[in-house]
């Protein structure tokens, strides 16, 4: 579904991503781990077409994205939902209007939009009664669930998560991890999750890729992480051997 071919990205003389070849399988949850500044979020931005690679290319559903113009990207992005690190809800809009935002851009009938908003809220285990609340009235976990509801309301086959558990206490983070996993199973969504949260990675991943110094330093099935060989990935996992 999504394939990276010799993908690279530079800013000036600084190499952020260096010759990455990787295929994300349809219906899997792929977790990208790595230290801060290694290019994890940059990779998501490249997949969404927010920035252009300086070498290589990305293929999505058989389309070489280098060939797309602005309209082509707009159409392709309709297949992708994005959950931002800070939730990135519109502060001036209600929960309902936040979730309806992408649907209204598709010029859907308001009755259809209302049905989809309520369905999205229910899917992420939020009471539809909160639809009239403002983001400022929500807890951190509720904001994150609302952000996920907004992303899935357009029914995308691809869902991208940037540090989905950052800023959440362990109990709430655990519920978000369970939600990510359940959405994959229930909706068949292909999920790409950027995180440095090891528990999150171990909970949601089918496969884990380690980014280090701009390269894909190691790639493992979740079931094979106990055999990790890269020193950094082994360090990440050092205190979690009982979960492997």
Secondary structure topology:
Blueprint: E1 2-11, E2 14-24, E3 29-33, H1 40-48, E4 55-60, E5 63-64, H2 70-77, E6 80-83, H3 95-105, H4 110-123, H5 140-153, E7 158-162, H6 170-187, E8 190-194, H7 198-204, E9 207-212, E10 215-221, H8 231-237
Parallel strand pairs: 3-8, 3-9, 6-7, 7-8
Antiparallel strand pairs: 1-2, 1-4, 4-5, 9-10
Helix pairs in contact: 3-4, 3-5, 4-5, 6-7
Which key terms come to mind for this protein?
alpha/beta, 25% strand, 8 helices, single chain, 244 residues, four-stranded antiparallel β-sheet, Rossmann fold, six-stranded mixed β-sheet
Explain the overall architecture:
The protein is an alpha/beta fold and 244 residues long. It starts with a strand and ends in a 7-residue tail after the last helix. The model has no long low-confidence stretch (mean pLDDT 94). The longest helix is centred in the C-terminal third of the chain and has 18 residues, at 170-187. It has a 6-stranded mixed β-sheet, with helices on both faces. It has one domain: 3-Layer(aba) Sandwich (Rossmann fold), CATH 3.40.50. It has helices at residues 40-48, 70-77, 95-105, 110-123, 140-153, 170-187, 198-204, 231-237; strands at 2-11, 14-24, 29-33, 55-60, 63-64, 80-83, 158-162, 190-194, 207-212, 215-221.
Can you describe this structure in just a few lines?
This protein is of the alpha/beta class and 244 residues long. It has helices at 40-48, 70-77, 95-105, 110-123, 140-153, 170-187, 198-204, 231-237; strands at residues 2-11, 14-24, 29-33, 55-60, 63-64, 80-83, 158-162, 190-194, 207-212, 215-221.
């Amino acid at each position: 579904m999504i394939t990276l071919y010799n993908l690279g990205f530079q800013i000036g003389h600084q190499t952020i991503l260096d010759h990455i070849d990787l295929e994300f399988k349809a219906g899997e949850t792929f977790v990208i781990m790595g230290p801060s500044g290694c290019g994890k979020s940059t990779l998501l931005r490249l997949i969404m077409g927010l920035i252009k690679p300086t070498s290589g290319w990305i293929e999505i559903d058989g389309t070489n994205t280098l060939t797309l113009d602005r309209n082509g990207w707009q159409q392709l992005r309709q297949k992708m939902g994005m959950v931002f690190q800070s939730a990135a809800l519109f502060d001036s809009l209600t929960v309902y209007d936040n979730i309806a935002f992408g649907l209204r851009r598709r010029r859907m009938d308001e009755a259809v939009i209302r049905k989809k908003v309520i369905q999205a809220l229910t899917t992420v285990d939020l009471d539809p009664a909160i639809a009239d609340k403002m983001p400022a009235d929500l807890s951190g976990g509720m904001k994150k669930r609302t952000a996920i509801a907004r992303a899935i309301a357009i029914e995308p086959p691809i869902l991208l998560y940037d540090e989905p558990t950052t800023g959440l206490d362990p109990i709430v983070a655990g519920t978000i991890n369970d939600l990510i996993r359940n959405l994959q199973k229930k909706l068949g969504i292909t999920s790409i999750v950027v995180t440095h949260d090891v528990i999150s990675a171990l909970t949601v991943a089918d496969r884990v890729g380690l980014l280090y110094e701009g390269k894909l330093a190691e790639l493992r099935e979740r079931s094979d992480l106990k055999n990790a060989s890269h020193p950094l990935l082994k360090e990440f996992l050092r205190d979690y051997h009982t979960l492997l």
